[in-house]
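Annex B. Sample input.
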Amino acid sequence: MSVDDILRGLGVSPAVLYQHFDSKEALYEAVLNEISAKRESYVDAILTGDDAFGTVLSHIMRIHADSVATDPDYLRKEMQVVLERAAAAK
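Annex B, continued. Sample output.
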């Protein structure tokens, strides 16, 4: 995805984007940090929840479903990261 694609999707000018991020890499890092924060919630669900596998899985799925419900692009962002890592591993 290019910066132009991001700008079109957000409906903002390059100046607005660069007020918040110094570069495309800085924007990408911010997205990765957001995804990492959500994954930390998964870890919390595992460490603080009931030891039963079904209960832990239920907590993780609830966190994931809430993430997608509040940010519909979350799943797309997470999948993009997975695909990029797979390509880099080749």
